[in-house]
Automatic annotation (TrEMBL):
One Gene Ontology term, aspect cellular component: plasma membrane
Coiled-coil ranges from the UniProt annotation: none
Origin species: Shimazuella alba
Protein name per Swiss-Prot or TrEMBL: Phosphatidylglycerol--prolipoprotein diacylglyceryl transferase
BP GO terms, sorted: lipoprotein biosynthetic process
Amino acid sequence: MLVIDPVAFSFGPLQVHWYGIIMGTAALLGLYLAVLEGKRQGIDTDKLLDMMIWVLPSAIIGARLYYVLFEWEYYATHPEDILAVWQGGLAIHGGLIAAFLVGYFYIRKHKLSFLQLADIVAPSILLAQAIGRWGNFINQEAHGGPVNTAFLHSLHLPDWLISQMTIGGVTYHPTFLYESLWNLVGFGLLLLLRYVVIPKRGEILFSYLIWYSLGRFFIEGLRTDSLAFNGPDWLSSFLQLLWTPMGLLFPAGQLTGGDIRIAQLISMVTVLVAVGVVIWRRTKKAEDTTSKHINSQTVATEVKSNN
């Protein structure tokens, strides 16, 4: 059974891992698409590139710190592995938090529109995430629980993919693939929003947050390596209740280290907040429009009365 070597090639003692190649390719392709869209919208390309020079390293550092902090029990005794990002262990939520914070302060400093730039980069982020998940595939990580190989064959998956998902004689759910495909579909939908629907400013960003978080919430429940903590019983039960539709199809992945998956909790909160903000912004806009209409009618009435 063929298993892909995580090391792509070597230069003496220097090893170049597929994980790094895939992540780098994902970042560069996402950056390229963002620059093209920035030019289309009249954004200074130099400022966009300068922002990315700050944002991309910050995202990697944030993703790693986030993962290390939640796995500190291991890294406290293995500090030499903290910088070994090629072994995996980049938490997307940590990367997003760091990227948005750094990007926000850069945009404020240069007096740009945060929502406009966020709308520009949101599809690029989702595409980069779709590509980046294949780094997990190479490292045989971020997979789900055991699954019957007949099920994977029923999905018409190639043998080399099924072989890579067979670890120690056990075949696992290719959750990396599920999320990659979900993100790829979302990327197409965001482009449809951008070029066809043309929503209000900021709504491509919020659509990204909603789409990605919904997929992550349900797919995360299948995984066996989720970052987790022990929380209140009511919260654990509530999350399990929300995950019920997926549970009707597949059993949840075995969870260790806690009873609440952090990624599921963050995803649920993100969906609620993003939906709430969209509704609030649209309601506020409607109220502002109604108020302006009433005020214009009042002025017209007063002018007519004075005449």
